[in-house]
Amino acid sequence: MRLFKEYPKLGFIAQLTLRKLKMENAKELLLDSDMSILEIGAAVGIDDQNYFSRIFKKYCGVSPIEFRNGS
User: Fold this and answer.
1) Cβ(38)–Cβ(6) under 8 Å?
2) Alpha helices for 1-63 (secondary structure H)
3) Most buried of the four, 17, 28, 29, 54, by CB within 10 Å?
4) CA distances (Å), 54 to each of 58, 59, 60, in order?
5) What is the rounded CA–CA span in Å between residue 7 and residue 4?
6) What is the pTM of this model?
7) Rounded CA separation 66/11 (Å)
């Protein structure tokens, strides 16, 4: 799990909580800003746009673009 490698001193539950907080923040930014997907990923601490999109879709069930467009 990549996030586990990014924060090795955090426990597994803490890392899941951190991921959830990042995705909730990303959802707010997608709805309330005109930032690009790349900028939003970076703002929540995920610099790789592809990784951000994969994690977002896994967490939310839709891609960041679909979420922003209301699909």
Assistant:
1) no
2) 2-6, 12-32, 37-43, 49-60
3) 29
4) 6, 9, 10
5) 5
6) 0.80
7) 32
